[in-house]
Design a protein that fits this description.
Layout lengths: L2 H4 L6 E4 L2 E4 L2 E3 L1 E6 L2 E7 L8 E4 L4 E4 L1 E6 L12 H10 L2 E6 L10 H14 L3 E4 L9 H6 L4 E5 L19 H14 L2 E5 L3 H13 L5 H8 L1 H21 L2 E4 L5 H12 L4 E6 H5 L3 H7 L10 H13 L4 E3 L7 H5 L18 H10 L5 H15 L16 E11 L18 E11 L2 E5 L2 E2 L13
Parallel strand pairs: 1-6, 2-7, 8-9, 9-10, 11-12, 12-13, 13-14, 14-15
Antiparallel strand pairs: 1-4, 2-3, 4-5, 7-16, 16-17, 17-18, 18-19
Helix pairs in contact: 5-8, 6-7, 8-9
The structure holds (4S)-2,6-dioxohexahydropyrimidine-4-carboxylic acid and zinc ion.
């Protein structure tokens, strides 16, 4: 007898009794999972006998979240976070795929650096992953594509007065260097993610606050938002123009001004292949009150109300394509110093675990529709970064499934935080909407408060 025929048939799983988000709406369906894929979709109650059953009564199954902007911190900054704690937070937050960022130690700039990082994910990641290396050294770019990366990253920012999170080794703000990097990335056909920033404007503006003896978090916030957002707007204009000239596919991170949105819309209309994201801290934090109350703990950046409203509108109308977390864990100590010198505090805001519940809460408050929520957190990132097996619950796709309770009311607290830092800027916030279970390719990675996924379960995803 053929050896294969003696193997027991692989157990099927089924998600039953709940609703499934399919074709743009929740429907009373059961999902059948086989060999890590969605193998069938049947009417509720009709999943075949003999399957391992997940009871989703009262829950909605949505496609697993895809977060293309995550600061994993490993290697180099594992006192903040590591790949196990980071992907645990992802699993608990309903995310089934993440892309890590290159501001590590060593920063991911060569094929050797990339190979070493990919080995770490293979050993430790609980969810599926890819890694965006820095497009800093043009001669390394083609070789990195051969390793199956889905995108590259450039930071136009270099920190002044601290050495992290934007070390000078990795920053690219000279326009000629940007142009060369974009030409090299265009050759690969992959997308370049860019943190837009005008470093020379930043240098001048921050100096004026320092000269006045003001190094407070509020001064930091005002510096970055100066001129109604000119640090962001001028960089975005340059990037769009260079993308048009080089044919490089572009992805702009943390869109946060009205003018940026207008420029993105106009560029898309002219046929520039540009996508964009905003992040939880732009829409749920970053007000003047937040900064005055929580200081560096919520910096990231100041987003004035008229810009925040424009970002919400863009999330609704599709001129911003996706929501990524920009999960950026730093220890309490690294934030605390900000009360005396905000330029010494490490900037960035954690949130991969809280982002989806916050979005469901926003949906419950009428800020956006379920359709847009699923598109922003899964459909668009899958499509734009060519993750063909991800992004919907259709038959044949990976069984990356997040069960959510749209009605559950609860309070976010530091106690629930899976991230190594043990704090969240949302501590004490009441939300209506929760993630109750997360499956990556049919395997449970998070169930009702417990991360159950095994390190090493995650696989590299990519366009090649
Ligand atoms: O404020 C930030 N923090 N911006 C980034 O681009 C990186 C991030 C981090 O790594 O902490
Ligand atoms: Zn970032």
């Amino acid at each position: 007898m053929d050896h294969d025929e003696q193997k027991p048939k692989k157990l099927r799983r089924a998600v039953i009794n709940g609703d499934v988000y399919l074709d743009g709406k929740p429907q009373p369906l059961d999902l059948i999972i086989e060999d890590e894929k969605i193998a069938g979709i049947v009417a509720r109650g009709e999943a075949p006998a003999g399957t391992d059953v997940i009871d989703a009564r009262g829950k909605l199954a949505i496609p697993g979240g895809i977060d293309v902007h995550v600061h994993t911190r490993e290697p180099g900054y594992t006192h903040k976070e590591d790949l196990i704690t980071c992907t645990s937070a992802a699993a608990a937050g309903g995310y089934t795929t993440i892309f890590g960022m290159p501001n590590l130690d060593p920063p991911t700039m060569t094929t050797e650096d990339l190979d070493a990082v990919l080995d770490l994910y293979a050993e430790k990641s609980i969810v599926d992953y890819n890694h965006n290396p820095a497009a800093k050294l043009p001669d390394q770019i083609a070789g990195m594509a051969e390793r199956g990366v889905a995108a590259y990253k450039i930071y136009m920012v270099v920190d002044t007065g601290r050495s992290y999170p934007h070390p000078s080794s990795i920053g690219v703000h000279d326009h000629g260097d940007l142009y060369k990097a974009m030409q090299a990335v265009a050759e690969t056909g992959l997308r370049l993610m860019v943190h837009p920033h005008d470093q020379s404007l930043m240098d001048v503006i921050e100096q004026s606050y320092w000269d006045a003896g003001d190094r407070s978090p509020w001064a930091y916030g005002k510096t970055l938002a100066a001129g109604d957002g000119m640090i962001w707007d001028t960089a975005t204009a340059t990037l769009l123009r260079l993308a048009e000239a080089t044919g490089c596919k572009l992805h702009i991170v943390h869109v946060q001004t009205k003018r940026q949105i207008e420029m993105l819309e106009e560029a898309k209309e002219r046929g520039v292949d540009v996508s964009s994201e905003t992040n939880h801290w732009t829409i749920f934090l970053g007000t003047e009150e937040d900064i005055k109350e929580q200081g560096s703990f919520v910096l990231s950046y100041w987003v004035p109300p008229h810009h925040q409203e424009a970002v919400w509108e863009a999330l609704r109308d599709g001129s911003i394509d996706m929501l990524s977390s920009d999960h950026a864990p730093h220890t309490r100590e690294e934030k605390e110093v900000g009360w005396t010198d905000a330029w010494a505090a490490h900037t960035g805001t954690p949130g991969i675990q809280e982002q989806l519940p916050l979005m469901i809460d926003a949906m419950n408050k009428g800020k956006l529709t379920l359709d847009r929520l699923v598109e922003l957190t899964s459909g668009a990132p899958a499509r734009i970064f060519d993750l063909h097996a991800k992004g919907s619950l259709d038959v044949g796709k990976d069984a990356d499934i997040t069960l959510v309770d749209l009605e559950q009311e609860w309070v976010i607290t530091n106690d629930d935080v899976e991230s190594k830092i043990g704090w969240t800027p949302y501590d004490g916030r009441e939300v209506k909407g929760a993630v109750t279970r997360t499956l990556v390719r049919g395997t449970d990675v998070y169930v009702n408060g417990d991360v159950v996924g095994a390190p090493g379960h995650g696989k590299q995803v990519g366009s090649q």
